[in-house]
From TrEMBL:
Pfam families named in the record: HTH_18 (PF12833)
Native organism taxonomy: Bacteria, Pseudomonadati, Bacteroidota, Flavobacteriia, Flavobacteriales
Domain HTH araC/xylS-type: 291-393
Molecular function via GO: DNA-binding transcription factor activity; sequence-specific DNA binding
Protein name: Helix-turn-helix transcriptional regulator
Database matches in SMART domains: HTH_ARAC
């Protein structure tokens, strides 16, 4: 029933409900995208640590956006449910930081000390569960501001809200700092041709957006401006945008969702991989000559998507035999082996008059590299100098 004395209120209510319905659709779109990208990751072979972290991260994002989308109508009325949803924000920062750490440091195994990053979330949830058992105490637990509160907010609840507010900005800062340090360190991320510049951009943009939204939420509590729904809608919309952006860059940088074969670097791993199928010296030498001839004549390294199985198929040799040749005869792993040829191809093309109108990046792409950052990193690693410095060192014609 509506009050005919105040027809404007009825129309405002309809507008709010329409806005809420639109928001719900947006959150479900984010949830769907998260599950879609998670499905892609589940099909990825040879998953590494950062892949597993991203899988759990996407699962969290899907659950968080879906939960908020389903509860958006009851969010303001149910203080404990709204507080539990707010507690989910304590997970976003740790997942980002652990993903960046694993990806930039090329970690292979999970460090159980990393569990400590999730302690604040677990503590907050346990606190809310225990508080719900004491109705008089839980009356003061509210995430929005009310002019006449039923009870004063508990001190411990305020502490958890402060931790939640600080968690996002702090973890975004720590993640970006780790990204920048890793980019300039000798680790150079990994030996794969993966362009990670998008990750730095992602951290920067969403770090700024997230911090602004947190400041708006703080202003709401201190000066009673805006509404809590405005703050939470903004934060969950940023999560939805985060999901879509990760998917966009992940599909462009297909190593994120599809991946490349794992590198074999140590003799112990080689021995266990080859097992009883190791080639003897004569056969090894024959395969070695076959590989060298094929690389020189066919130049398969010009294909930026070349993988160990694909090269083995073209050579008509077992993958483990090719891996043995590369590791034992060339003393290298597959990616370094291929990149050595690509660097030599770049050096030839730089001096070739047919490519004098090409930029260094253009020559790199023509030589099999798939990104500027990978090209610069690999070229300096192999030659000890940058591509531009190498070009300048050449005698002018």
């Amino acid at each position: 029933m509506t009050d005919d004395r105040f027809p404007g209120i009825h129309h405002i209510g309809i507008i709010i409900k329409k806005d809420q319905s639109t928001m719900t659709y947006l959150f479900f779109i984010g949830c769907f995208n998260a599950f879609f990208f998670l499905a892609l990751l589940l099909q990825k072979q040879a998953k590494q640590l950062h892949d597993r972290i991203l899988m759990f991260w996407l699962l969290y994002l899907a659950i968080a956006t879906a939960t908020y989308g389903l509860s958006i109508d009851v969010f303001p009325e149910s203080s404990l449910i709204s507080s539990g949803i707010i507690a989910l924000f304590l997970l976003h920062g740790p997942f980002l930081y652990l993903y960046v750490s694993a990806l930039t440091a090329n970690n292979k195994t999970f460090n159980w000390k990393s569990i400590a990053h999730f302690i604040p979330f677990v503590a907050f949830v346990l606190y809310l569960i225990v508080a719900s058992l004491f109705p008089e105490y839980s009356e003061g637990i509210r995430v929005d501001h009310v002019s006449e509160p039923v009870a004063k907010p508990p001190f411990l609840f305020i502490i958890f809200l402060l931790l939640t507010a600080l968690s996002g900005p702090v973890y975004f800062f720590l993640s970006y700092r780790k990204f920048k340090r890793s980019k300039t360190s000798s680790l150079n991320f990994s030996s794969k041709d993966i362009n990670l510049d998008w990750l730095g951009t992602l951290i920067s943009i969403f770090g700024i957006v997230w911090t602004i939204l947190i400041l708006i939420a703080v202003i709401h509590h201190l000066f009673h401006l805006f509404t809590m729904e405005f703050c939470t809608n903004g934060l969950f919309l940023s999560l939805t945008g985060f999901i879509i952006t990760i998917g966009y860059f992940g599909l462009k940088q297909k190593e994120v969702f599809i991946g490349l074969p794992l590198e074999i670097d140590t003799k112990t791993e080689n021995t266990s991989k080859y097992g009883s199928s190791r080639m003897q010296d004569a056969e090894l030498q024959k395969c070695y000559r076959q590989v060298n001839a094929y690389m020189t004549l066919k130049k398969p390294y010009l294909d930026p998507d070349l993988t160990l199985p694909k090269l083995a198929e073209n050579l008509n040799v077992p993958t483990h035999h090719l891996s043995q040749v590369i590791n034992e005869m060339h003393g290298s792993n597959f990616f370094d082996f291929i990149n050595q040829f690509r660097v030599e191809e770049v050096k030839i093309k730089i001096q070739d008059p047919q490519f004098e109108n090409y930029s260094l990046l253009g020559i790199a792409l023509e030589s099999g590299f798939n990104s500027k950052s990978a090209f610069n990193r690999v070229f300096k690693k192999i030659t000890g100098t940058t591509p531009s410095a190498f070009k300048k060192s050449l005698p002018s014609s």
